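Protein record

Derive tokens from sequence
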Amino acid sequence: MDQEYYKTFYNRIIERNHEKLFPYREFESPIFCNLTGLMNENFTCLMFDNFIASITVSNHILERMIKLTLIYNKSLHADKATSIAAYNQYQGKPLGKNIEACRNLNIISKQEYDHLKQIVNDVMRNGFSHSEFEKVIGDIPYVTKGYQGSFHSREIKEVEIDRRHFVSLSQMMMHDFAKQNAFEYYKYLRYLLSELEKRLLEKTKMD
């Protein structure tokens, strides 16, 4: 396929997605400015219908955002020694522990904590970044009914399809889930980044 084909193909995708996505293109954050490039990368994934890639980038952004929130909560506008100590305290910890730390420090609410732990961490992050399909599609029965035709007759047979055997079926389900939820996840990150930034700035004023 030549270059002109790709140009035509991707231009059609951009035209289809532009109206829905364009209002969310710009992202600015004085505190989380080092996440701007990742948010722009995420937006590009969505613009080109790369839904699983978008969720994977979102997971990376989320983990970095939570760590930075904890680091900045202790060191925003502080001296070098305080910043290094805060960095060393949180940088190597897993996402689940850092979400708990945010809750214990009252940076996030109980409702936000539950959503981050039960949906974002368990389903979105573990399901996609760790390829744990059952975290995402575990509520769907393993076996579903299908129908099989024949070239030699008009007989249609009912068959059972087990997605553990036909793994490609599970992958299709994951892709469909990503298609339905990647943009919602991106919007949620924009909201959470804005909220955490406000809270950090308010704490700095109080300190």
